[in-house]
Specification:
Length: about 290
């Protein structure tokens, strides 16, 4: 009789989908005509699971999986004559959260228990859609402008304001021409720069430090930028050259004696006959030494 005994047969779906954190029900049917049998889980019931007999040869297995597992699930049917059969379905573990969809594409593990991959919504990322997707990785703000991720379940990111001196939506910022917008920024010259402006002055003037005002440059002061041979007279924004008595301006800067001396008159630089007397003169910036 024992030799003619056959083990129980187990019928169930080949795949058991288990969602982490949810009750997942699996139905099994056992057949062994004329014999008594039992059904169990090899190695004992997993945590948070129960195996119930709901009819003649009909069982349901309920599992509330709390964390990801890769352990196999094997059901064992034993009859009263010592014959046994096993059935191990492919367990597909779905651990996606935040409305992520489980998929068999790009499996993280591939054995009798499969941890499925996740297709996340636009707001989330990561293996199981737990992480807030960084919207700043998908947009580029203007240089120096802060990018702020929109917290999930919101999507995307926003850029801060354009820097001072610029206008735009912070994704793209454009230089403001302050000189064109306000003619009173500088007293004389306004030069637009990237994000700002600078004041400058016309020739013969210089900017008063810390202001937008200009002042005349005295080219005739000692060490000044003039090319006068004898006398220098400062004017607003410029200067003019002139000569001492007995000399006439030959061009814009040089003087010639009205009555030149004979043989240089013993002068080291300039000699002129003034009212019948030979006199020595010095170029601007030098002083006549007394014998």
């Amino acid at each position: 009789e024992i030799l003619s005994n056959f083990p129980p047969t187990i019928s169930a779906d080949a795949v058991y989908r288990v969602n982490v954190g949810e009750r997942s029900i699996y139905t099994l049917t056992i057949r062994d005509p004329g014999d008594i049998f039992t059904l169990s889980v090899q190695g004992g019931l997993p945590t948070e699971s129960i195996l119930l007999k709901v009819g003649e040869g009909e069982y349901i297995f309920i599992w509330t999986l709390q964390d990801i597992t890769t352990e196999s699930l094997v059901f064992v049917a034993n009859d009263s004559k010592g014959a046994a059969s096993t059935f191990n379905p492919t367990v597909e573990v779905c651990a996606c959260v935040n409305e992520g969809q489980c998929t068999l594409e790009g499996l993280l593990t591939s054995n009798e228990t499969i941890v499925m991959n996740c297709k996340c919504t636009e707001a989330f990322s990561g293996d199981f859609c737990v992480e807030d997707r960084n919207g700043c990785s998908e947009i580029q703000c203007f240089e120096g402008v802060e990018c702020m991720d929109v917290p999930a379940p919101g999507v995307g990111a926003v850029c801060g304001s354009c820097p001072n001196g610029y206008t735009g939506d912070a994704n793209k910022c454009y230089d403001i021409d302050e000189c064109a917008l306000n003619a009173t920024l500088c007293e004389q010259l306004c030069i637009n720069t990237d994000g700002s402006y600078t004041c400058a002055c016309n020739e013969g003037h210089q900017l008063i430090e810390g202001t937008n005002q200009c002042q005349d440059v005295d080219e005739c002061e000692e060490g000044g930028a003039n090319d006068c041979q004898q006398l220098c007279d400062n004017t607003e924004g410029s200067y003019v050259c002139s000569c001492t008595d007995g000399f006439t301006l030959a061009d814009s800067s040089n003087c010639t004696a009205d009555q030149p001396c004979m043989d240089g008159g013993g002068c080291s630089h300039i000699c002129a006959n003034v009212e019948g007397e030979e006199k020595c003169f010095c170029p601007l910036g030098l002083e006549l030494s007394t014998p």
